[in-house]
């Protein structure tokens, strides 16, 4: 069967929510529509639809494949429109226009980021990007754990922490600065730590991220040339562990202990007097951040444009300027 026609049928079925409705949109019988979808599934070797009940919903693979098929079909329509409208144009100009249309950012991007990074630091940039790219939609996947881009259908991911895994193209961005802080009431009650070793006598608020198990950090050794200390896990006195940075922030404001929080998150609380920075000279941590996508794959216009846009605004050179 014609692969493009199969993709068109599949997209219509997903949009309509059932084989019968999708078949009607394509002016064919439900049996014929089912054969078109089955042809795609046979080619991919995996099911694209859950076929239980009256409604057919895409599988995890089907959802990812739907987004790509929809973009392919939109580009075909753009190419057809470009050819139809060039009767008064030269062949060189029409070819150039067709190439520009083919590289115009179009379709949905699935983007992953840590919760606070995405919701607080990146959201203004996402809003700006969507205002200037009306043909692109963002599907944000905000979670505080590592993601498998291929398995979860993620086009691009913002990752804070160490080096990205092999198989990913990584673009270096501005680091995330974390600062130790506590409420004035807690410090009045328990005292102000003057050096990293003093943390052993304090209640530290842990943040669970994947296998970190809520461990806090303490500075060891001299400050690095970058202005940050080498931090090691603190093995005791973690009184509260949370898997959400906003919960950790509120715990610190409530006087439950000392937290290590992103500068952009705690700055408003410090300005309002609800939190106080401590150990700034010794326990300021700058975690690297990268924007990654899968290597060895075709990079669509929407992904290429999105990555370039974010690197231009968050890359080290842009931030230094």
From TrEMBL:
Matches recorded under InterPro entries: LysR-type_TF_proteobact-type, LysR_HTH_N, LysR_subst-bd, WH-like_DNA-bd_sf, WH_DNA-bd_sf
Positions of the HTH lysR-type domain: 1-59
Pfam family, any one: HTH_1
Keywords: DNA-binding, Transcription, Transcription regulation
Membership in a protein family: Belongs to the LysR transcriptional regulatory family.
Protein name per its UniProtKB record: HTH lysR-type domain-containing protein
């Amino acid at each position: 069967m014609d692969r493009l026609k199969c993709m068109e049928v599949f997209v219509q079925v997903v949009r309509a929510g059932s084989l019968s409705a999708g078949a009607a949109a394509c002016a064919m019988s439900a049996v014929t529509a089912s054969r078109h979808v089955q042809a795609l599934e046979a080619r991919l070797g995996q099911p694209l639809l859950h076929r239980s009940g009256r409604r057919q919903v895409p599988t995890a693979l089907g959802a990812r494949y739907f987004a790509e098929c929809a973009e392919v079909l939109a580009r075909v329509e753009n190419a057809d429109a470009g050819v139809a409208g060039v009767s008064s144009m030269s062949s060189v100009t029409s070819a150039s226009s067709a190439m520009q249309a083919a590289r115009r950012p179009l379709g949905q991007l699935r983007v992953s980021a840590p919760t606070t990074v995405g919701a607080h630091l990146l959201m203004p940039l996402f809003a700006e990007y969507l205002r200037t790219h009306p043909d692109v939609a963002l599907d944000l996947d905000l979670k505080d754990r590592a993601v498998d881009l291929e398995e979860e259908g993620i086009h691009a991911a913002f990752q804070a922490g160490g080096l990205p895994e092999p198989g990913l193209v990584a673009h270096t961005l501005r680091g995330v600065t974390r600062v130790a802080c506590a409420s004035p009431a807690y410090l009045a009650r328990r005292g102000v730590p003057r050096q990293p070793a003093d943390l052993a006598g304090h209640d530290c608020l842990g943040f669970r991220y994947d296998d970190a198990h809520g461990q806090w950090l303490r500075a060891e050794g001299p400050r690095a040339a970058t202005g940050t200390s080498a931090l090691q896990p603190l093995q005791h006195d973690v009184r509260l562990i949370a898997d959400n940075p906003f919960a950790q922030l509120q715990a610190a404001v409530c006087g439950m202990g000392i937290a290590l929080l992103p500068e952009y998150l705690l700055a408003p609380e410090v300005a309002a007097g609800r939190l106080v920075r401590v150990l700034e000279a010794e326990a300021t941590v700058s975690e690297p951040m990268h924007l990654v996508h899968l290597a060895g794959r075709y990079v669509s216009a929407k992904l290429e444009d999105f990555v370039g846009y974010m690197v231009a605004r968050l890359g080290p050179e842009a931030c230094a300027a």
